[in-house]
Write a structure and sequence with these properties.
By secondary structure, the chain is α/β, with parallel strands linked by helices. Helices cover about 40% and strands about 15% of the residues. The protein has a five-stranded parallel sheet, with helices on both faces. The model has no long low-confidence stretch (mean pLDDT about 85).
Length: about 130
């Protein structure tokens, strides 16, 4: 099972993320955390918590960002990264996260409506995908 954890770059409640991961470990034997690889907030804390709890971790950064070892398994090759910025990359990132995740968890996102709309729009045709907002 693959679970995406995304949200607000100003989010600082590491305990909330760790509590979620503890619950997931109790309910699922084998799962992977998927994140955007953000440098701040939810994504940073999710990455740290995943490593602390020895949970598999995959990053899905935007195509204008650098490829790294955590990108293995996200469906993209290393040569697809380091491109010149394009506003479409945000939507490609969302699409890849949805494609690769069974459950998507939002933590208190300041852009929740914009992001939520994009995820819901793309989730309409996907079956067996869950969107959880915390």
């Amino acid at each position: 099972m693959k679970i995406a954890i995304i949200g607000n770059p100003n989010f600082k409640n590491e305990r909330a993320i760790k509590d979620l991961l503890y619950k997931l470990k109790e309910n699922y034997n084998d799962f992977t955390i998927i994140s955007t690889g953000g440098k701040y907030g939810v994504e940073k804390l999710a990455k740290k918590a995943a490593f602390d709890l020895h949970i598999k971790y995959i990053e899905v950064p935007k195509l204008n960002e650098k490829w790294n070892a955590h990108c293995e398994g996200n469906g993209r090759k290393y040569y697809m990264y380091n491109k010149e910025y394009n506003s479409k990359f945000f939507y490609y990132q969302i699409s890849d996260i949805i494609k690769n995740s069974d459950i998507i968890v939002f933590f208190n996102s300041s852009k929740i409506n914009q992001i939520k709309e994009q995820y819901e729009k793309q989730l309409k045709n996907k079956k067996n995908k869950k969107l959880i907002i915390l």
